[in-house]
Every structure is written in structure tokens, then in C-alpha cells.
Write a structure and sequence with these properties.
Helix content: 55-70%
Low-confidence stretches: 1-6, 179-189, 270-293, 513-527
Number of strands: 17
Radius of gyration: 30 Å
CATH superfamily of one domain: Phosphatidylinositol (PI) phosphodiesterase
Structural class: alpha/beta
CATH topology of one domain: TIM Barrel
Strand content: 5-15%
CATH architecture of one domain: Alpha-Beta Barrel
Shape: elongated
CATH class of one domain: Alpha Beta
Length: 743
Amino acid sequence: MTPAIRLRHAYLDHPAPLPFAHRGGAADGLENTAAAFRHAVGLGYRYLETDVHTTSDGKLVAFHDPTLDRVTDSRGAIAELPWRAVRQARVGGREPLPLFEELLEEFPEARWNVDLKAESALEPLLDLLRRTHAWDRVCVGSFSEARVARAQRLAGGRMASSLGTRGVAGLRMRSYGRGALPLDRLLGTAVRRNAVCVQVPERYTGIPVVDALFLRAAHALGMQVHVWTVNDADRMKALLDLGVDGIMTDQIETLRTVLTERGAGSDAPDRPRRTGSGRRGGVQSTEAVAGVVDETAARRREQRGWYWYDWANSVYSTSVLTVFLGPYLTSVAKAAADPHGFVHPLGVPVRAGSFYAYTVSVSLLLSVLVMPLAGALADRTGRKKPLLGACAYTGAAATTGMFFLGGDRYLLGGALLVVANVGFVVSSMLYNSFLPQIATPAERDAVSSRGWAFGYASGALVLVADLVLYGAHDSFGVSEGTAVRICLASAGLWWGAFSLIPLRRLRDRRAAAAGSGAGPAGAETGGGPLGQGWHQLRETLRDMRRHPLTLSFLLAYLIYNDGVQTVITQASVYGSEELGLDQTTLIMAVLLVQVLAAAGALLMGRLARRHGARRTILGSLAAWTLTVTAGCFLPARAPVWFFALAAGIGLVLGGSQALSRSLFSHLVPRGKEAEYFSAYEMSDRGVSWLGPLVFGVAYQLSGSYRAAIVSLAAFFVIGFVLLARVPVGRAIAAAGNPVPDRI
């Protein structure tokens, strides 16, 4: 329990622990706006956190950054712009920046924690507090101890304040002396005694700040300890158990739930409060709070529907691409080949054994051309779900049509493969782009991991049924070829049937206003939706240059994911050609990978919650490196060791893919989800030839598939180095998104 602390200022006149809505609850992307603060107060929050800057004409603006660039549709330093220019900016493309005086007026019962971001804001803030008699409603803090100490002196003792960085360091030193030895004074970092609280992160550069000693030292001086910015429910509970006096969070619904479950005092935000009076005021009704709860339930419903698209389309990837189609289409092409072993699609001589590989390459090339257009159209029109449905059912229909692939109809097989694969790739891009819209930043690792787990479970389930049919086709009265065609067609039927669930549960969002995107309001081009789509694509490519850290992540992902995809596609070649394993062993290994990948995705999702997605991905890349290196030394004709290799691949496969998807979702600017995820998919598909090329060249030069398989370790090592160099927190902030506690 939080110990009782002598009341030092009316600002702290509510029972601890105090819940603070950090920037009004920044998780929805509308940080420091009146709309965000209304939402927080509607949830029952009394304590709100914001920052202040002054315009060139002296207006005090509630805003975090010194510039407008990161989260608004305008650019420029606030200190260099007049209020008439700043007031035109829109956070998230729709919400104006408020003056701090407007917030004090609209929320008369709220307590405000204000960070003085610049020296120029000090005197305008004190003048406002004098005019509005708001001394009891505001606590002033700053990283600069000198700035906040000066404000305290000018306020004449009426103002509540928190310690600055120097004071926090002094308190930390004092805590080690346990009161008997004033280390803060000995080291020249004496703690300012007129502060009423200390507001700190739980850790700073990996070093713990908040612990029992620190709390004891602060409480001994009569200061409360408020911890920022805590977005994980487990960390909230741990800090409350430790005895902190307040928590600042972007995830205001999560903190509300934690405090309500604990019955944490009368200030747990569990009931509606009055938000003000006058023309912008009013009362947040019980219905308003119920609406927020309904919105959370609707988001959960969408997430559950979203998982089912992984369940629907993963069967195509497993049964069609990985197991059955390659050998079967190759046999059909060989049946149609001339005496020299060549087929002639469009009059071009192609060796029959290469026809499948070339067709896959053509489908990937077309996918790379179609994805940016589909992404731009989805974001431009806001009609993402119809595009997802069109791509899914086009791909499912083409896959079902593979039942008619037989004899020497290799051209039909090639055409169906191209259509199905383009539908699969483009629909996957659209599906992935829903993730930032249906999951909060704190939820995305878990939601993405569950989606991958659904997909791998589905692939394993259908593959078992396929193996029963394929292995006992005589018992079912069908030929081996017919059994394969049934397996191919059933994958299409499965894909189409289960796509109904996400298409019923997912919902489209309104497209961003024309003037809030990358270009001016009147910048549409002619030519209807296609012309507008290509115009938006050009704007997207220009916009991506403004986010070099996002591009750095894409480069790292491009490298290590190419290694992942090459291992998936070439492991069977390695098993059959180098290790001398039969087809049944290889298919069983694929099944083992599917089962363990589902479990691995969930396991790595849990690890990401504890250690962060970036660290977990880096760990998985180290595991990939060890796995493929160990694969080089497997003995021939030893299925048990190959199954061990498959187990290692499965455990890291699902998690590395799921967490890469969720991590990238943090790096996407709001309103550009489909366009940026098209770039994400392009980085996957667009250079998918590089890994097989390295594998092939290594084999050609060495004559050994062992050298070829170990050469793939380079992709994981290079990807590890590149990802380790990406400052992910800065990249997320640069994209205008809230930075989770662990990333």
C-alpha cells in the first residue's frame, strides 16, 4: 500500500495512487488535443499531463514537440510562428492545437501536470496562473532544475512543482545513504525541498530509477513519486505493489481497468466526471463512458475476425506453394515438353523443370507492381475491406480451379498460379494494414503473434488431412494425381470459406481528408481512381523519404526475411539432394514446422511483452544463425536430425515474422497503413530472388548443398547488425506514433 504522505499542496488533495492521462492518452495518436482530454475525463481521469510552448506572439500552446512536424499536417517551429499560423495545424489531420488557457477553462475540475519545455514559456505560464487563480490546479515540472526552481521563486511559494533532472539525481544519491549520510549534499546535488513530487521513468538508459530505496527517500521528504510513461498492465501492477503514488500512461483504458480491479482508492478513474461548463463544456454521461467500453469491445471483435484471415489463406501457402503445386506443375510441364525437354509459353523456350520457378517469379513481379496501387487506392478511398475481399476471392477461385490442372495443361496451371499468387500477396498486404487500426500499440505484438499462430495451426490441420488423402489415395479410389488436385482445390475452398469471417467483422475507416495527406487538397489527378491511386503512390514514395528510420527498418527486414524465405523454400531441396531423405520425411518435417511455428509465435509474443519486440527479433535472428549453421553438419539419411532442424526452424519462424509485422506497424504514419504495408510486402517479395541466387551460386561454386545452406547465415547476421542500428523508439516518434514502454 502507498504510505500516507503529509499534504504539502492542494494539488495533491486526492487519494493516491493518482492516475495521469499522459498527453490526454497519446495511444490514439491525437495527443495533447481537447478531444483527447475530453476522452480521458470521460473515463474518469482527474489528473491530466501536457506540455507548453509559446508562439512568436506569446500565446501558450499545449503541445509536446518544439515543432509541428511530427504529429500535425503542418511544419515549422512553434516559437517562430504566430498563433494564427499554429492554430491552422491539425493533429492527426483533424484536431486543432489548444491553448492551455482554453484547457483550464474547459476542464475546471481537472488537475494539470505541465512540463515547461522552453524558458520562453515560463513567464506566460505564471501570468496565466495568476489571472485564472489556478495555483491549486497545476503542477509545473521541467528537465531543467534551474528553470523550475526559478518558476517556484517567481510564484512566491504558491505553485506546486516537481524535481528536475538534477534534483532526481540528488534524491537517488540520497536514497543510497538511507538518511544517515546525505550523499546528495556531499556530491553537490542537494534536493530542492519545496518540490511536492518527483516524476521519473521506471528506468533510465537501462538503469533502475524507481525502487524501494528511492520511494523511501522521497516519502521521507514528503514527496510523492509519479512514474512515467507506463503502458503495460503488468508493470502498472508491479509499480503499484511497490508503492508508487501515481502513474502516467498513454494507455488510459488499461490503467483504468488495473485501478478499478484493485479498488485503488476513490480516484480510480471508474466513473464519469463533469468536464466543464459553458459553450464547450458539459457533462460526460454514463452513456459516453459506455460508448468507450463498446468501442473497446468492437476492437476486440475486429481482432478476433482478423485472426481468421490468417487461418483462411495460410493453407494456400502451406499445401499449395510449399508441398504440392511445385512437383505437380513440373510433372505437367514435363508431360507437355518437346523431345529436348522444353516447353514454349508465348513462344519462349523454357526447360520444363524451370517452368514452376519462372512462373512464381512472374507472379511476384506482378505482385510488386500491383501492391503499391492497391495500397494507395485503399488509403485514398478508405474502402480497404472490399479490396481485400476482391483479392481473396480472386486468389481462392484460381486455387480452386487447379482441380482442372491435368494432362499437359501447363499453361493453365501457370496462369492459375500467377492469379492465385498475386491475390494471395496483395490480400496479405491489405490484411496486414488493418493491424495498426484494430490494435493499440501495446496490443500489437500479441495480436500479430496470435494471427500467425492461427495461420500455422490452420496449415498444419489441413496438411494432416491432405497427407491422409495423398498417402492412402488408393483406399479412397482415386489416383495420385487426382489426390493432388483435390488437395489443391480444397485449399482454395478453405481460403474462400473462412475469408467470410474477417470480411464480416473488419470495418473500413474513413479516408483521411484530402487536405491532410501528403499533397494539397486540390491535387487529385485525372483518370478516376487509377489515376488518383498512381498520384498517391508518387506522394507516398516522396513521403517515405521523410521517414529514413522506417526505411532503415525495411532494409534490415528485407535482408533477414529473404534469408527466412530462402530457408523455407530450399530446406526440402537440401533434405532430398544432400541428405538423401524421402518425400514422406520431408512432408512430415513441413508439418512439424507448422505445428511448432504456431507455438513459437505465441511464445515469442510473450517474450516481446517482457523484453520488447526489437530485442526478441534480434534474439530470433541469432537463433536463425545457429540453426542454419548447425544444419550444415547434419548427417545424411538421418531423419531424426532433420526433424530437429525443422523443430529449430519452426520455433523461431512464426515469432520472427509476427513480431516484424507488429514492429513495422508502429513505424507507419497514421492514415498511410495500406501504402506503407505495400512497401513492407514489396521488401519481402521484391528481392525474394536474392536468397535463392546466393544459395544457387554457393552450390555452383562448391558443388555442395552444405555450403549453400550455411551461406544463408549471412542474411541473418547482416539483418541483425542493420536492425540493431535502428533507433526504433526514435523511428516510432518520427512517424507520429506513441512509443510503447517496451519496443
